[in-house]
Write a structure and sequence with these properties.
- The chain contains nine helices and 21 strands.
- The mean pLDDT is 94.
- It has a five-stranded parallel beta sheet, with helices on one face. Strands 13-12-11-16 form a four-stranded parallel beta sheet, with helices on both faces. Strands 6-7-8 form a three-stranded antiparallel beta sheet, with no helix packed on it.
- By secondary structure, the chain is of the alpha/beta class.
- The protein is 27% helix and 21% strand.
């Protein structure tokens, strides 16, 4: 944030609910400038950007969980926020403890399917590491694998499997006519599609899966995937990479009228929750950046909010958040990928150098003042 900070903020208490990319970025910006509390149910940040590699590379699972305590010390509190009381400016944890705030940043994120995300009930990191290691063994034992969903997670998972375990039969099914939704160019999508095909992924487009509920109930058992066009694909493993659910549990009772139809908190141009000057929402649980919910945009939200909290403390005008425009670096295994910046499509070499090789793992361990475990 630069060297300047508000002396008026020094004695103020900023509480951050959620230790994902947005919450950690906000905590890093505000560290040392105020009284700070970062709250998360887990003892470690789940570096989910790299989580798909953990199901193909032995030993990688331990690298996607970064402890909070070494980074934030006593400013980190492990717990689940069950209530936000904006009238009395406090959050309440599942053990009944109340924590009062002057400024609140809500960064609760989203939940999706494993292995891209973890469920809210998965709070034990050692169990989570075991889950990734177990899935790696399941993928190694499988012959036929189906990935449902042609968004970034589905594309990345198919790419990771075929890059590291080329003998697997991998089918990617997407309900739309092109991969990757959002404000991306035809060239970006075509490159993504062509790289998957070159790896040997069987890409089925414009095909809706008709037995999703059966597949959800099947767990990781062998099953058959049916599509509306009559395709029937037997699979040893099926991964559902469709749909993210906003984590609303912390605020759905007291801020229900501030939620949109996806459960995101509706914010103004300063990322304040509508009607609440001292409450901000960032990342996936914010209505900002509708078409591009990514760790990168969450970190931009955090930067804007950290400054705006300082401006509020000083009684100054706030700065509006400016969306960055289309930007995606999409790994397709460790050796491929594609990148779009604005309308420029920059190719697999740039994507590989920026993200695919390391998936930002070293960077995020460094930002949390630790070294990547070997």
């Amino acid at each position: 944030m630069g060297s300047w900070y508000s002396s008026n903020l020094k004695e103020k208490h900023v509480v951050i609910v959620g230790g994902g990319y947005g919450g950690v970025a906000a905590a890093n910006h505000l560290r040392g400038k105020c009284k700070l509390t970062l709250i998360d149910p887990k003892e470690c940040m789940h570096h989910c950007v790299a989580s798909l590699r953990a199901v193909v590379e032995p030993g990688y699972a331990k690298k996607i969980f970064i402890p909070y305590k070494p980074a934030f010390g006593e400013s980190f509190k492990r717990g689940t926020v069950t209530e936000i009381d904006v009238a009395t400016k406090k959050v309440v944890l599942d053990n009944g403890e109340a924590i009062h705030y002057d400024y609140l940043i809500i960064a609760t994120g989203t939940t999706g399917g494993f292995p891209g995300k973890l469920g809210l009930d998965m709070k034990d990191v050692s169990r989570a590491v075991d889950m990734y290691n177990d899935m790696l063994q399941k993928i190694k034992a499988a012959e036929s694998i189906v990935v449902i969903g042609g968004g970034p997670v589905g594309v990345e998972l198919a790419g990771e499997i075929k890059t590291d375990l080329a003998d697997k039969q991998v089918t990617l099914i997407h309900s739309k006519s092109a991969l990757i939704d959002g404000p991306f160019t035809e060239s970006f999508r075509k490159s993504t599609h062509d790289q998957l095909v070159a790896l040997g992924v069987n890409v089925l487009l414009d095909q809706k899966v008709t037995n999703l509920s059966d597949l959800e109930n099947a767990g990781w058992a062998r099953c058959t995937v049916e599509t509306e066009k009559g395709n029937s694909i037997k699979a040893d493993l099926v991964f559902l990479c469709v749909g993210m659910k906003t984590n609303t549990e912390a605020y759905e009772n007291t801020l229900a009228e501030k939620m949109d139809d996806r459960g995101c908190l509706i914010v103004n141009e300063f990322l304040q929750v509508n009607g609440h000057e001292n409450v901000f929402a960032i990342g996936d649980c914010s209505s900002a950046d509708d078409e591009a919910k990514m760790g990168y945009t969450a970190s931009l939200h955090a930067y804007t909010v950290a400054w705006n909290i300082q401006y509020l403390a000083d009684g100054k005008s706030l700065t509006a958040y400016r969306p960055p425009g289309p930007l995606m670096v999409l790994p397709i295994g460790r050796n491929g990928g594609e990148m779009q910046y604005g309308t420029w499509v920059l190719g697999s070499f740039v994507a590989r150098m920026i993200k695919s090789k390391d998936l930002f793992t070293r960077r995020f361990w460094g930002e949390m003042r630790q070294s990547v475990p070997m």
